[in-house]
Each structure stands twice: as structure tokens, then as C-alpha cells.
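Feature request, filed as a ticket because there's no other form

It would be nice if the structure record came with a short human-readable summary line next to the C-alpha cells. Right now we just get the raw output. Example of a typical job, pasted below so the devs can see what we mean:
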Amino acid sequence: MFPNIDPQNGIPLFEQVCRQVKFAIADQAYLPGELLPSVREMAQKMAVNPNTVARSYGELQREGIIESVRGTGMQITAEARRICQKERVRLIQERIVSALQEARFSQLTQEEVTKIVEREIQRLWKSK
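Raw output as currently delivered:
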């Protein structure tokens, strides 16, 4: 379910774990009321230190995505999917803005960038 965590990509490991869980929730791999794996189990699945997962779970809890159920574990909240979908859109928009800024600083014209984007959209959506 979870792609490998990449310690070399510059994104802190705890944030990568958070993103993986958020994307899984946005894709309905986890549903409201469902329990996440324990910290130890998730750490083993993702090949990271349990402290990293504990920190990630704490962040997800602060964001209202998961909640602690006494004696049971961490449960997906009713609002989690909406929050995670919104976060996914924000991350994608952030990446697009960054790529567009780089294109502008590289002195590509708006028309050149539009052609690149349209070509890639066609290529990526065609492969589905």
C-alpha cells in the first residue's frame, strides 16, 4: 500500500510518512472509523524508526485526520478524507507553481510552457 520512503529526497521522513497516510486516506485505502496499523507495525511496513511513525501520527492527530481511541489505537476521523484531499490538491498546486516559476526564470514563453503542459497531460491521461 505504501511506496518506499526515500531518505535522500530532502523531505523529512516523518513528513513522508504523513503524506503516505494522507494519500492512502484520500484514495479511500483507509475509511473513517478504521484503525491505522500500530506504530511498530507501520514502522516495519515503511522501514522507518518507530519514533518517526509516532511523530507522524502525532502530526496527523493535530491536523484532525486521526484520533486516539483509548485502548484500541489510532482511528481515521470522519473529516479525514476531505482534509487529505484538500492537502493533496495543495501539494500538487505547490509543485505546479514551482515548475512554472522555474520555466519563467528559464525564459520559456507562456506558449512553450502551455505546449509542454498540454503534451504531458495528453501523455499521462492517455496511459490510464
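Something like this underneath would help us a lot:
The mean pLDDT is 93.
The chain has two domains: 13-81, 91-126.
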